[in-house]
Task: structure prediction
Amino acid sequence: MNKDVREALEAERARMEKKYGHKSADIGSTRVKQNVVSTGIQALDYALGIGGYPRRYMTEIFGPPDVGKSSILGITAMVNAQNEGMTPGIIALEPGFDADWAERHGLDTDGLLIGRPDDGHAAFAMLYDWVIGDTVDFILFDSIGAVLRESETDEKATGPAAMGQAGLITWGLKRCVMPLWKKNKCLLLINQVRDDQKSKISGLLDSPGGHALKHSCPIRLQVKFGKERWYGKDHDGDESYSYTNGQNIVVAIKRNKMSEGTGKRAQFDYFYEEVEGRPFGIDTTADILATALRAGVIARAGAKYRHPLFPLAKSGENQVDGKDGVEQFFKDNPRAVETIRNEMMTVMRARLEAKGSRPVESDDVDGEG
Result:
């Protein structure tokens, strides 16, 4: 690059920042560090290709009722955000937040801010205040499908409040896109599903909110029910009667502009109570094992699972017998679990770097992020 051109560009950058505000311009060679917040689900972190939900961007999570969009994925993400020193907040258009349920998952509710706006216009005004402010770093918007136009309650409403639902959502989200990026914040948009009225095929579903919502979110996740998990027996000890206390949950990645993850899927088991050795919440040991096998970090030969950290067997191999044996090893060796998790993330990053699709990580120009 010619020195005079470089100096001219730097002068223009400084002028634009002075006129239009901080971070309004950068030299093209500037690298911005891409931080993420772990989803808390190893299979999903790996499938996304970046290790979690991206900061600086919006992520849409949509699916049917009671599949765990906010009560599982949302709360788990907020727990990880708190573990990373972030302050989470919920804009609760659906006033169903259960503090006891959240605390069972490890969320510190004393460090959580909850906003309860009366309508969609107030909700997006509150969202914008949080995005440009310095208090809340991780925002859960629950939910897009519950956005209520002010005109639905006030016949005299004008301006943005009188828009249709899609127009109101477009107005509310588009003005948050750039401040979200500049402030290095993470935004999860919980959404519902509706029958696709435009489709000629009966039974197809789509998320409400219009096309602008889909364009604003570089990552869109569809949550579905998998198979039910059956464990335990009734309270009288009758072994002939079992009941559902778990659910396999499938997360399909419908859009991923951050890596190569579009079209991939992640599955995990979730248990509503602890029974017969299965944990309450996400079955993390089974999740890590399945993802490690997928990444090639743990090798499998029949019923034998092999990894350098596993105990040395008589055969001379570092191995453990059976899936239950691996899960027990994980429970007894939490440091080994962290090592295996890091190995999986290393494999994920190496694959992206080989394809040139992973953002280069370096410090931001002002040290933020």
Observations:
- The longest strand covers residues 243-256.
- The chain is about 35% helix and 20% strand.
- The CA atoms of residues 186 and 209 lie 20 Å apart.
